[in-house]
Write a structure and sequence with these properties.
With 58 residues, this protein is an all-alpha fold. The chain contains two helices and no strands.
Length: 58
């Protein structure tokens, strides 16, 4: 249902130049956010594998 509503909203916004601009900005920000999230996951996984970030108490 959520996907359907997104499509309906996108089609409605795409009718006007201003709405199309808003869709473009939202798409760009969403891509940027997704890319950052993926990079954070990669660095977290790398740290977990290498053991970095954990201090051993002597």
């Amino acid at each position: 249902m959520k996907g359907f509503l997104k499509v309906v909203l996108a089609r409605w916004l795409a009718r006007t130049p201003l709405g199309l601009t808003a869709l473009g900005i939202g798409w760009y920000l969403g891509r940027r956010r997704k890319r950052r999230r993926e990079q954070e996951q990669e660095t977290t996984e790398h740290r977990a594998r290498s053991g970095a970030g954990h201090r051993r108490l002597s």
